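Need a sequence for this fold. Nothing fancy.
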């Protein structure tokens, strides 16, 4: 029995912790800075968006959501990534959620307008662009251009609807009365 105890003690002494630095791998080169903290997911996502890596940016924004919660900034960023990926309905949902938290968040107002304009909802898009433009005090050229574009598309769609009246003629009858008559 004593021999068995000695063998177990010897085997136990030979084992070492598997996570000791000797077992991790080679040490970094001299002068390598030590990383104290990881970079914020929102910052990483913004950098990836600027680089055109929208899917990776979306994953970084999800990481930011896990770290910070679904803040207005995070929701708006997720919506922007979905917008760039062409996922318009998902982007719309995210922008609306961001605006529910902060109705005066100019980037979400503008981006929701862009989504709505892309979906052909020009009148609603115009309302969001107007709100963004007013809150921004007219400083952003991009918001102004978006507003002008929404108004033009709205007018164009109204004009296009009147053009679908082919097969009808507008005939003047008497003093200022007009009658729409069907032609053959």
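Here you go.
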């Amino acid at each position: 029995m004593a021999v068995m105890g000695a063998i177990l003690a010897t085997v136990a002494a030979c084992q070492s912790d598997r996570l000791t630095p000797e077992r991790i791998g080679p040490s970094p080169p001299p002068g390598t800075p030590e990383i104290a903290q990881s970079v914020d997911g929102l910052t990483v996502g913004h950098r990836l968006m600027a680089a055109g890596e929208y899917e990776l940016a979306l994953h970084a924004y999800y990481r930011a959501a896990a770290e910070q919660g679904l803040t207005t900034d995070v929701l708006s960023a997720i919506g922007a990534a979905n917008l760039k990926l062409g996922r318009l309905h998902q982007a719309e949902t995210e922008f609306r959620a961001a605006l529910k938290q902060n109705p005066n968040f100019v980037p979400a107002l503008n981006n929701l307008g862009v989504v709505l304009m892309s979906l052909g909802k020009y009148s609603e898009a115009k309302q969001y662009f107007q709100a963004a433009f007013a809150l921004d005090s007219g400083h952003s050229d991009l918001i102004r251009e978006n507003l002008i574009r929404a108004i033009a598309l709205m007018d164009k769609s109204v004009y296009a609807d009147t053009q679908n009246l082919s097969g009808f003629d507008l005939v003047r009858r008497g003093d200022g009365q007009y009658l729409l008559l069907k032609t053959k």
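For context: Residues 159-166, 176-181 have pLDDT under 50 and may be disordered.
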